[in-house]
Amino acid sequence: MAAIEGIFVPNIVPYDAHGRIAEAELRYIIRWLGSKDVTGFYPNGSMGEFIRLSYEERKRVLKIVAEEAGGKPILAGAAEPNVDLVLEMCGYCADLGCRAVSITGPYYFKLTQESIEAYFRELAAKSPIDIVIYNIPAFANEISVQVLKRLALDCPRIVGTKDTSRDMPRFQSVLHEIKSQRPDFSVLIGWEELLCASLFMGGDGGTLSSCGVVPEVIMKIYREARAGNWNEAKRVQFKLLDLFSLMVNAPNFPEGFRSGYELRGFKVGHARFPLSEEDHVIIETMRARLACVLAEAGFTEAALSCRPIKSATSRNIAAADVEAIVRAVISKMK
Amino acid sequence: MAAIEGIFVPNIVPYDAHGRIAEAELRYIIRWLGSKDVTGFYPNGSMGEFIRLSYEERKRVLKIVAEEAGGKPILAGAAEPNVDLVLEMCGYCADLGCRAVSITGPYYFKLTQESIEAYFRELAAKSPIDIVIYNIPAFANEISVQVLKRLALDCPRIVGTKDTSRDMPRFQSVLHEIKSQRPDFSVLIGWEELLCASLFMGGDGGTLSSCGVVPEVIMKIYREARAGNWNEAKRVQFKLLDLFSLMVNAPNFPEGFRSGYELRGFKVGHARFPLSEEDHVIIETMRARLACVLAEAGFTEAALSCRPIKSATSRNIAAADVEAIVRAVISKMK
Amino acid sequence: MAAIEGIFVPNIVPYDAHGRIAEAELRYIIRWLGSKDVTGFYPNGSMGEFIRLSYEERKRVLKIVAEEAGGKPILAGAAEPNVDLVLEMCGYCADLGCRAVSITGPYYFKLTQESIEAYFRELAAKSPIDIVIYNIPAFANEISVQVLKRLALDCPRIVGTKDTSRDMPRFQSVLHEIKSQRPDFSVLIGWEELLCASLFMGGDGGTLSSCGVVPEVIMKIYREARAGNWNEAKRVQFKLLDLFSLMVNAPNFPEGFRSGYELRGFKVGHARFPLSEEDHVIIETMRARLACVLAEAGFTEAALSCRPIKSATSRNIAAADVEAIVRAVISKMK
Amino acid sequence: MAAIEGIFVPNIVPYDAHGRIAEAELRYIIRWLGSKDVTGFYPNGSMGEFIRLSYEERKRVLKIVAEEAGGKPILAGAAEPNVDLVLEMCGYCADLGCRAVSITGPYYFKLTQESIEAYFRELAAKSPIDIVIYNIPAFANEISVQVLKRLALDCPRIVGTKDTSRDMPRFQSVLHEIKSQRPDFSVLIGWEELLCASLFMGGDGGTLSSCGVVPEVIMKIYREARAGNWNEAKRVQFKLLDLFSLMVNAPNFPEGFRSGYELRGFKVGHARFPLSEEDHVIIETMRARLACVLAEAGFTEAALSCRPIKSATSRNIAAADVEAIVRAVISKMK
Fold first, then answer.
1. Structure ipTM
2. Contact D112 C279 (CB under 8 A)
């Protein structure tokens, strides 16, 4: 099989008024993303709140994405809570025809690197489908470059890594120590800010939450970079920073991205985790800024929600913001 | 209902050769613990690897513990992955007659304190059973004292907290800021080293993994403390430190405690997560030391496994240890 | 020489309008503290901003404290930037008749535990005065219990430790692993919240910044504890928590304690590091609350500055506070 | 004055057998580096152990470097412990004709971002020489991008930043939020692994410790990048990774770089901080590997010290290494 390459969209899960998966909207989003020429799909990742779905719901999401993918490859999150369940999910993904599964380091418990290696070796030995190792140290145990290297050089089933550590030196070490010895090993970036630099240094693509909100922007950076038009790729990359910064720094990831989808016109519903009043205020403020950035970038459907806010370098701040801020910080000060 | 007080044993889950729950052994352990006069049981906590069981397995564990508890109160872990599933589990625990559920802060995603507060408020409003808030910042989002205070003073359903942060100043703040205003609010320690000091300052008891391995020791500290025999309580507390240190510092919690159960004669089987060769070696070394500490403390069943190791302050080290160490560190150096 | 025991006050350095050491005020403070029956003095610690003084200024502070100590023992900070300078300062302290020096782990660079051990071994071999090892991991390299143990058991010159890690399990390990084998080794707490619990478990006293502000309170806890009046000791300990919490959580330690001195009537001047407008506002708010707590505790000189603030659990907040908060957070939001 | 651009070498301080600055060797090193066409010099940075020198020694180092610089620009570390001393040092550097001073965030105490901003504003208002803000969060308080932005846009005296955070997203934010608005603001990288990527994204150069050891390599990356020969720049950048990784990961920075200087033939003497036996062993092992990497890269003077070690991915390890490792880890296990 060909190496994994390109941009895979981490899929959001929209909910209906009862908190159930809004299946029709999910299908609509997948088809819309397909029409934007993304490379493939990435359901059941962090963006997809896999941890808050039931096992059956995760299977349902996969099925829907597979049905709507239109032949595009699927990289499917399979970070189930124990080896047997991971393998069961691997089988399910294989049956659906997914290209590979993506598995995070174990979460909750802290484990030694040696046992994390043993875990992935066992999965690699038994999985019926290719595996991408997903490093996301903010949420789950980090997988060291040395462990990843031994796994990559020993296990044919482990075909790549997705790195969401926002750690560029680590990304380069993976290229230098692993890809140089196994050129078909895919090294994907999972952090928007590093897309352009990672492609420049030799990366193979990425799985980037923003791609669900502005597939046009992400795919443009990717295509210009692939074509060697680095100045244009960099220009758009810098423009992406504002957009990404607003969404990723909003409280309670992935809520900032949920706002982004709404501004593009999708009905993604309320989160699966209750938002406090204070966080609602902060997210509303963020959303108004995000709308302006989107509108300015040509996504006219967002223009109506744009409420301009004074420059961050100025010491002045709009009265409306002050109120929002006060409400938001009062509980913190107490 | 009376305030929660005393020592609740966090239950281990023994597995059979196929990795399935060893139900007969679990029943046997619960009855044995009951015979040691522990106050109550605490299934589906971190010690019980709740995160690695399926939803159905967690229910099965609860049922077995309830059947064997002999009327002792049960504090049941219910940290399910979303609000609906937590509430469903709360209902199940209520039906089984559990005294309360214990719920950790959310894990994996990082959330604001305000939204964590909103989460517990929603649970408190809808749960059919009392709730104990379980603070374990090493594995899940911390719950700040200020959030805990607002919850405790506003929500009758939230009846206590279990603190596994190993943070004594925090524990005292909870006593000072919350228990002083709501005296029936239970403040339980979840860290062995602080049992004696926490009882001295005004705590109500604890949930301590060591209590499954040496219930005699933990219950003695508790009873001497309650009787005001502080010198005796402190003497045993200091003896407990060696035991606890070996078990809690072993790689891949709760593997150190699993070894402890084995040394007491139980058949707890292999972990639900693969151990590396290196970690096996380290745990075997730890186990030999643990056996000596247990044997010295009068738990004669452990004596056979005791393999003495030279003093830690000496610069010499046994040849056997060197070998074990070398094997263990080689991978790290590479 | 007798083991070090009791309460040593970490001395503030007051400044005049030109930012120079206000020598007369410093002498006045030392004499006042002496009249409150503190055990001894602790100049050139973190509270004394040793890092912001020149080498000559640190010597001058020592000389003044020695002249005003009235025969009480002095534990002198000597964390100079390299071995030669530490030893030179040790000689100076010995000549002044100090009881011992206190030396932090090295700061700025991160060092291995083994080299930190080598550093203290070299100092112990050459110092003309006893050494107390000062563990303050928030500001300088931590010194592990195992390193401390080897040093304590091998080096007669190293006579104790001061622990500001706020880590009660660590404090107990030091008692258990070191003091049990070398009973004259002094184990002092450097964190107010743990004074009572540390004395209960077997500690020898403390060096506590609050003791400069409310020597009456700290000495009462110490004396009641030593007399075995634990209920009274605990009662006052819990009262101390509010006071300490306000001072230690104020921005830019030791600014909160500086406010405390001012409320007791001393003229300590402006800090050696510029405070932002925002931090001034926050400290003023803190100071008004601190004044109330002090006044309520019977320190009537603080009453005039008391400006009551609504309860932290209430969702309301005074208009004056809102303004202060807004100004304080605006820069953060930008 | 022209914007700061290019590669500034952080200078090592060589010591003689008595631990005093080896002035002749320092002069020799500076002249040698000048002959390698580095852009300029950077004395009294972290590499120069500024924190372990006395105030007078730091001045002496500056004077020597200024005398040997041959007209090349000097960026001088001036992170003195308080505002008055920083300004005094700024005056000294101005008199010597340095191009600018470099000042870290304050160390030891933790300070708010607002007060760090006030600190730099005061320095900027009073300094007679241009200031570069040096962000090195591993050792000193981080300076947030928002604070840096306000300083850069308000203070003409603050002309650039040096970033040693190894944080590429931060580096890009500085380019995007600051340099886009003030194009003459210099953005220098202080982390070798990011040299090529930072230049590609728009950086102005760097201050890189490796440049003292292999000026040929660093200058080649810089010149190829500036000439637009990106493939060649990347090829050399990847080769640099092994070299840098060995030196930066050696215990007790900057000891790894000291070994590098020795392998190039300089007599840099022993460190200003005692090395443990264990760390000596680890550094010797590292040095043997470093020699091979240097020899392979064409620095033939290092060939004699090269002692090959088996590949890191192999599970085998040379007997000599095992011994070294054992000795190194024994103390850790105890």
1. 0.92
2. yes
